[in-house]
């Protein structure tokens, strides 16, 4: 098997069957294949990707990407003035019982939240087993596909969903599941990016490679069934589903240090480090899988887009939106009929 199409095993401490283990290992074949696939990675074009539910998520899951995800976490912390999120349950000193972190990645948000809220039971969900072994006692991780039916035995008081654009095929169904799995009075928070870079002075145009890179990536993800959508519309969609007091906040992540404002300038420095070294990896799977590009073609596009990222005469930025809403306190939660909120 070539390096560009290979299986890589995770360094997780979980026990893995020795080579050649067959039905005598005591597990049904279906369980055995699912368990093993969680601990395997697929190598493609020099990067690794999740093997479990292969192809559902487009970004790599190797150390380079995990470092980028931790950098993005710090970008959000800077954006939110050293808070983990914007919804009321995330405020320091608030009390919350059960928390779900969807698309937890490295688990850094779940771990930080668990440390800040020791009374909370925090569950992080992801397709990849990329989380650390040693975590606070009130934090745990599960490997699962959140687009499959949810089978939690208890509702959550707070669901946190960050950077899930391009991962969700049916957003209405996803938001409905979040609503259904919240306790009455619970909060859903969505934090994500509007996909295309924009500028207020017209300094980024359709002729720039940076713009073209994101247009092509958008087309590729649409071809793969997980298009980026206009994130700002999800506030209205949450209201339609039944959330109340929906709040939408917009922030800016500049493409480099071009702003004069000190905070925006710092955000631009961090966002440049988020994107410039990682464009190849972020573009590779979408363009090679969705548009049948060659690996070398992706590298050339990324090279030209990096030049635009570094150009301080291009005053571009990405809109970052934080949307949260509350499930009304009187809403029945029928799928948890055997669960008592008073006893939680």
From TrEMBL:
Signal peptide: none annotated. SUPFAM superfamilies: S-adenosyl-L-methionine-dependent methyltransferases (SSF53335). It comes from the Eukaryota. Transmembrane segments: none annotated. Pfam families: Methyltransf_23. Residues 1-14 have a biased composition (Polar residues). Residues 1-40 are annotated as: Disordered. One of its GO terms (molecular function) is methyltransferase activity. Belongs to the methyltransferase superfamily. LaeA methyltransferase family. This is Secondary metabolism regulator LAE1. It comes from Colletotrichum fructicola (strain Nara gc5).
